[in-house]
Specification:
With 96 residues, the chain is mainly α. The chain is built from three helices and no strands.
Length: 96
Amino acid sequence: MKEQFINTYSQYSDDIFRYLLFRVYDRDIAIELAQEAFTRTWKSIAGGKDIENIRAFVYKVAYHLAIDLSRKKKETSLDAMTEAGFGVSDSRNINY
């Protein structure tokens, strides 16, 4: 299984990086997420998980990492806006 993982990394690491770069628009973050995707894949394999399609598995892990990052950014942005004094207003009081 180790050899299959190494072959997968060699064959798809650039593709995973480009996929993540398209999702996050930041080269450094895409590199980190790609590394994390392969690290988590290896941990799953080492933990005894039976993976039929390792390429699809790595993409799925990468997808979820990008989604998690997006969620964290949204939470941070909302918190920062609230702290800066922005709040939800009652739209019924707006005159057009």
